[in-house]
Automatic annotation (TrEMBL):
It comes from Mastacembelus armatus. Binds 1 zinc ion per subunit. InterPro entries: Aminopeptidase_N-like_N, Aminopeptidase_N-like_N_sf, ARM-type_fold, LTA4H_cat, M1_LTA-4_hydro/amino_C_sf, M1_LTA4H, Peptidase_M1, Peptidase_M1_C. This is Leukotriene A4 hydrolase. The keyword DNA repair does not apply. Its cofactor is Zn(2+).
């Protein structure tokens, strides 16, 4: 099994940016990584693999930058020593914060002059509880033969792997060499730069990676796994365990079309390669926009490409989120609102305007769900929330996505339509490419770009949109053409008496697309729970238990539990634990927890499954179920 934390490697870093290093031992072999991070123009040299159980961090810097670098973020790291140009340097760790970790301050042992080159080396050990990493035993993978490692750094977990400036306002590039056993493969958030036999061990392979485009720590990633790949386009491959690879290649076969469509909308794709890695089911998100290597959950493998809009979303992040980035997590909507807007514009180009409108209707319901969950007066439902002493993970919801999209759609209508507003979005990306921005900077540029429409923009209630909790001040009037059939069928069920149930036929849903069936169930979830007799009849007629589309199955199980169908509880808990996507896992656990008869069962199943969950998912579900720290175990 994997022994997390036994890492033996070293890293060199140039100028402002901290480097990072990963290496784990397994029962049979070691997996090692050497990285160099750098500024825009220089690369540092590799110092070679270490021979101890600790990690070594080397920082090469010019004196003008040291005052920015001398404090680094850490979390659950054991700092062993610090050297500056080979001389011992004093270091100190500040007070430990519950989620921010511990600041590491380093003091140079000598005076420095302008232009002097200084190398600072930090030796440290990682912890088995590093929140950025999930270590899977062979039994937790699809193949059941080899261990698996993947990282998930958003929003502030990179500091648990390496001392760094773990902020979206800090961007860097890097070069990496990864040495792994020959039966494993390493992939990273970078361009593949060749491979060779490890000269120090003939049983190992070295993979090289280079990321020449500035990016932020939260989308740094590494995965070490036994994996297969298939080419799905001239600049794209899909990677996964062999059990998923053919399904994934089919599901994501439209990736190149999506990339070209996005380029037509907002300009060239600057990252070179666009690969997709299908992760094990415990991955907590639908996707993660790591440069060059999007992470995707296997819950997207519906078999009919109906859930591939998640890939359009992650592709869009290549411009909004990675190229232009929110400066702090309070401004997260700048990443996600613009990305949802661009994702839906891709859908508009590839399908229709009616499809974009239909998708936006579903997004509005997701926003309502989040506001209802948090509470309409909760400040975390602000578009720009205050996150002072708030863990960004706790603030994660559809609010920055869908409230952000709603604002942009409202502005689109005010400014003259989608073509006009896309001109602004493209210009905004060009103006702020490779940098991090705040909401105020975005707003100032909006007024500059639409200088002939300032009077209209001044009439927008910016305070209500940005800094007021709850639903937006303006509800968009979306086209309901594709939603009308869903609305009609949902209303028929809501109004039906027991004597009317015989009127429902299997053909009711056969004429609906997967997206429309999802919307039909969403509409029912926004009403009072259906009588149990209705839900049982729905299963009898439509056989919704047979659907494997994760979005449909998720909503159907929530509907069943809300109607207090006891037979659905084990199935709902099974879905909550057999995959770890927070979008599904957290609401399913909450639904069962709210079914008072099964509250203890929800807690029991969570505690039994917790060790296999991602640390972020585990921590948030524990809070949802009001499970104290004394009842939980460290991953």
């Amino acid at each position: 099994m994997v022994c997390a934390g036994n890492w033996v490697c070293s890293v060199s870093v140039v100028s402002l940016i901290a480097g990072r290093t990963l290496c784990s031992t397994t029962s049979k072999s070691q997996m090692c990584l050497t990285l160099l991070t750098n500024d825009r123009t220089r690369f540092a040299s590799v110092s070679g693999y270490g021979l101890s159980r600790s990690n070594n961090l080397r920082i090469s810097l010019i004196n003008v930058w040291f005052y920015l670098l001398q404090t680094l973020d850490t979390k659950d790291l054991k700092i062993i020593s610090a050297l500056a140009n080979g001389q011992p340097a004093r270091f100190s760790l500040g007070p430990k914060h519950s989620f921010k970790g511990t600041p590491l301050d380093i003091t140079l042992p000598f005076e420095i002059s302008r232009g002097q080159h200084v190398i600072v080396e930090v030796t440290y050990e990682t912890s088995t509880s590093a929140s950025a990493l999930q270590w899977l035993t062979p039994e937790q993978t699809a193949g059941k033969k080899q261990p698996y490692l993947f990282s998930q750094c958003q929003a502030h977990h990179c500091r648990s792997m390496v001392p760094c400036q773990d902020s979206p306002s800090v961007k860097h590039t890097y070069y990496a060499q990864v040495s792994v056993p020959k039966d494993l493969v390493a992939v990273m958030s970078a361009m593949r730069d060749g491979q060779e036999d490890d000269p120090q061990d003939s049983n190992r392979t070295i993979y090289r990676f280079r990321q020449p485009v500035l990016f932020l720590p939260s989308v740094y990633c590494i995965t070490i796994v036994i994996t297969c790949s298939r080419e799905i386009g001239p600049r794209s491959r899909v990677w996964s365990e062999k059990e998923f690879v053919d399904k994934a290649a089919f599901e994501f076969s439209e990736t190149e079309t999506m990339l070209k469509t996005a380029e037509d909308l907002v300009g060239p794709y600057v990252w070179g390669q666009y690969d997709i890695l299908v992760l094990p089911p415990s991955f907590p998100y639908g996707g993660m926009e790591n440069p060059c290597l999007t992470f995707a959950t296997p819950t997207l493998l519906a078999g009919d490409k109906s859930l591939s809009d998640v890939i359009a979303h992650e592709i869009s992040h290549s411009w909004t989120g990675n190229l232009v980035t929110n400066k702090t997590w309070e401004h997260f909507w700048l990443n996600e609102g613009h990305t949802v807007y661009l994702e839906r514009m891709i859908g508009r180009c590839m399908k229709s305007e009616q499809f974009r409108q239909f998708d936006a209707i579903g997004g509005w319901k997701d926003l309502q769900d989040s506001v209802n969950t948090f509470g309409a007066n909760n400040p975390l439902t602000n578009l720009v929330p205050s996150l002072q002493d708030v863990d960004p993970d706790d603030a994660f919801s559809s609010v920055p996505y869908e409230k952000g999209f709603a604002l942009l759609y409202h502005l689109e209508e005010l400014m003259g339509g989608p073509e006009v507003f896309m001109g602004f979005v493209k210009s905004y990306i060009q103006m702020f490419a490779y940098s991090s921005v705040t909401t105020e900077e975005w707003k100032n540029y909006l007024f500059t770009y639409f200088k002939d429409k300032v009077n209209i923009l001044k009439k927008v209630d910016w305070n209500a949109w940005m800094f007021t909790p709850g639903m937006p001040p303006v509800k968009p009037q979306y086209d309901t053409t594709l939603a009308d059939a869903c609305i009609a069928l949902s209303q028929k069920w809501i109004k039906a008496k027991d004597q009317d149930l015989s009127s429902f036929k299997k053909s009711d849903v056969k004429v609906l697309s997967s997206q429309q069936l999802t919307e039909f169930l969403s509409l029912l979830l926004h009403e009072d729970p259906l009588p149990l007799s209705h839900v049982k009849k729905m299963q009898e007629v439509y056989d919704l238990n047979a659907y494997m589309n994760s979005e449909i199955r998720f909503r159907w199980l929530r509907l069943c539990v809300r109607s207090r169908w006891e037979e659905a509880v084990p199935t709902a808990l099974k879905m909550a634990t057999e995959q770890g996507r927070m979008k599904f896992t957290r609401p399913l656990f909450r639904e069962v927890y709210n079914f008072e008869k099964y509250r203890d069962e929800a807690v029991r199943v969570f505690l039994a499954s917790q060790a296999a969950m991602h640390p972020v998912t585990s921590g948030l579900v524990a809070k949802d179920l009001k499970v104290g720290a004394s009842n939980t175990t460290s991953l």
